[in-house]
Specification:
Length: 448
């Protein structure tokens, strides 16, 4: 399109010039040292244009010859870069396919002629897969020498290789150096997260949480899951110790939105109960249950031994209105009622808990109440039922069947003996009656 426009312009200019020359061809004369050259204006214009065009061609020709070596070098550089990129692509594809030797060879083909460290870094990964640790270090050194500005990428690659080779301590040291120099390096933060999570180094991982959130290294949902995991593990680890100061410190650094979370409250409350800090555990459990109903927390509430069990019973009975058939709540109510010495309530709640599948603990608690109110036979039966549920089996069913048959035989034998004794007694009574009658007859005969 551009060439067509230029052609149209040239034709139009030629036509216009021809029309001007036709009316008045003009006159041009050049004089130099007594030599005169005369011509028409039209011929002068054509000659000038031709001279300019020839000069342009000559300048282009000499310019091409002058810059030819540079252009050749640039062409060679482009060709070398194209071939090097092709070799790099082949090496990376071979690496992705697990062809480590082929990958290493392709990556090193043009590595020395490249100004980038990528070839050596990729080759180091292939050498790592082949177990050639010496070549790994050599390639990393060559990468540093090739591109000193890529030190951060080189250290990250080194850390990845150390993690894969099972050297977490050296990897952590390398990553910490990167973090010191560049606190916002997202790749380093991700690798540190992966490393500390795999080694369960929860304190170190806790230190990373702020940087992970501030730099938006991971998604919001993933961050919340990680934050929850870290604080949960820290709290569990603290609860394994006997140091309540450490436990309370672990609880205090937990984000506020997790203070009513059932999992965290259960962990902390169990530790408080183990340390007999029931007055501290009660409001914690009560507020958490009010915030979100949870059977584990309700169960723990039933294990409280405070100075005001009746007050706790009153609180728990408010929950009963909405959870009347909940066996865990009924067990808790039964326990709190027994501690309040309300034995009728305790028995009623525990019997309802048993009926609703309260489990072995409900049976055991009910048996204890029955023992206390002097019903030993029913308590023994309840203990036995609870034991069967706890064991998951009904003892020895075949032995129970044999025992039942034995008792049936004993009962049948006893019944026969009783019937025989009754028959013997009847016969003896009849004999005695006959003897008495005979005596009466003899007495009557003597009197006559």
């Amino acid at each position: 399109m551009k060439l067509l426009i230029q052609l149209i312009v040239i034709i139009a200019a030629g036509v216009a010039l021809a029309m001007i020359v036709r009316e008045d061809p003009g006159y041009v004369m050049f004089s130099y040292q007594g030599t005169n050259v005369e011509t028409s204006f039209a011929i002068f214009i054509v000659a000038a244009i031709a001279a300019i065009f020839v000069s342009y061609l000559l300048i282009r020709l000499f310019g091409s010859l002058f810059f030819a070596p540079r252009r050749v070098r640039k062409w060679q550089d482009r060709r070398r870069d194209r071939v090097a990129n092709t070799a790099l692509t082949r090496g990376l594809l071979a690496q992705a396919e697990g062809k480590w030797r082929q990958s290493e060879k392709a990556l090193l083909t043009y590595a020395k002629k490249s100004e980038s460290a990528i070839n050596y870094l990729a080759a180091a990964k292939s050498a790592q897969a082949l177990g050639a640790n010496e070549r790994v270090n050599q390639y990393l050194d060559l990468a540093q020498a090739t591109d000193p500005n890529a030190s951060s990428a080189i250290r990250i690659t080194q850390a990845e290789l150390l993690i894969d080779s099972g050297q977490p301590e050296r990897a952590a040291a390398a990553l910490e150096r990167i973090r010191t120099e560049d606190p916002k390096n997202g790749r380093a933060l991700l690798l540190m997260t992966k490393l500390y999570k795999s080694t369960k180094n929860w304190p170190k991982l806790c230190e990373l949480l702020y940087d992970l959130k501030r730099n938006r290294v991971i998604q919001h949902q993933e961050y919340n899951q990680l934050e929850r995991l870290v604080h949960s593990e820290l709290l569990k680890r603290a609860c394994e110790s006997e140091n309540m100061v450490q436990v309370n410190n672990s609880w205090s650094i937990i984000p506020k939105y997790l203070h009513n979370d059932s999992e965290f409250v259960a962990i902390y409350a169990r530790k408080l109960l183990e340390e007999n800090l029931h007055d501290d555990a009660e409001p914690l459990l009560r507020m958490a249950i009010r915030h979100h109903w949870n059977e584990e927390l309700v169960y723990l509430y039933g294990l409280l031994y405070s100075e005001n069990p009746y007050g706790e019973l009153t609180v728990a009975e408010k929950w009963y209105k909405q959870h009347q058939d909940n066996p865990v709540l009924l067990l808790t109510l039964g326990r709190l009622s027994s501690r309040s010495e309300l034995w009728g309530k305790a028995r009623s709640y525990l019997e309802t808990s048993v009926e609703n599948g309260g489990g072995a603990e409900a049976y055991h608690a009910l048996a204890q109440v029955l023992e206390h109110i002097d019903e030993p036979e029913l308590a023994a039966k309840t203990y036995r039922q609870g034991l069967e549920i706890a064991s998951g089996k009904k003892g020895l069913p075949e032995l129970a069947e044999l025992t039942a048959k034995k008792k049936a035989r004993q009962n049948a034998l006893a019944q026969k003996e009783a019937e025989k004794a009754e028959q013997d007694a009847k016969e003896e009574a009849e004999l005695l009656a006959l003897e008495d009658q005979s005596k009466e007859e003899r007495v009557a005969a003597s009197a006559a």
